[in-house]
# Entry
Amino acid sequence: MTRARIISIANQKGGVGKTTTAVNLATALAAVGKRVLLIDMDPQGNASTGLGIDRQAREYGTYQLLFDEITIEQAATATTVPNLSIVTASVDLSGAEIELVSSERREYRLRQALANSALAFDYVLIDCPPALGLLTLNALVASDAVMVPLQCEFYALEGLSHLIRTIERVKRAFNPGLDIHGVVLTMFDKRNNLSEMVAADVRGFFGDKVYETVIPRNVKVSEAPSHGKPVLIYDLRCPGAQAYVHLAGEVLKREKRRLIA
# Structure
């Protein structure tokens, strides 16, 4: 593969806007001309659904990719979004955690599949399951960086510290180049004092690792997946869509600074 930047979108807690961020960030990057591959590593397959890929059409996907049955070239499916392809997740993936336990080089399966690919992408985004098991481990070992969506709620920092420790362990044992790309605050409600307090705490702890962009609570963001569309296509003018456009801009700025440094 032409050296794509591989970014996992991970948080072991469910319901934090992880898949929504993966789908809409991928769409926003594709909209500015970047060639993007989204890999759905979550057995629930919500990223695949959110991009309008019917479950009956997911004959080949992440499961087959992990067990050497197919290549990235065979697994990648074009979406209705120009420049954006996806490796879908099917129900088979739910058994992959158990099957990987006895697999040779079980932590490196996804990394190897990406390394063997000749497809040219600028960015590969990986939507991780809401657990720190072997599927998430495969994503972290394959990645250059991790983006962490963080819901603005009371227990947010507690869960985040656990994830950071996991990332540090992966860095020491499997992937020395792994870095935290940034923390994105999601489901932000400016009418709620708690959202402001959590945002202040996270910024105080992580400093400039926290993106300036916050993703607001927005009904259009919630509605879009049921139509099989990213919110940027469902309603580009809504606050949620505009927030993801700004987040993509921040990601690209950070990438540019990294190349200059």
Q: What stands out?
A: The CA atoms of residues 236 and 242 lie 7 Å apart.
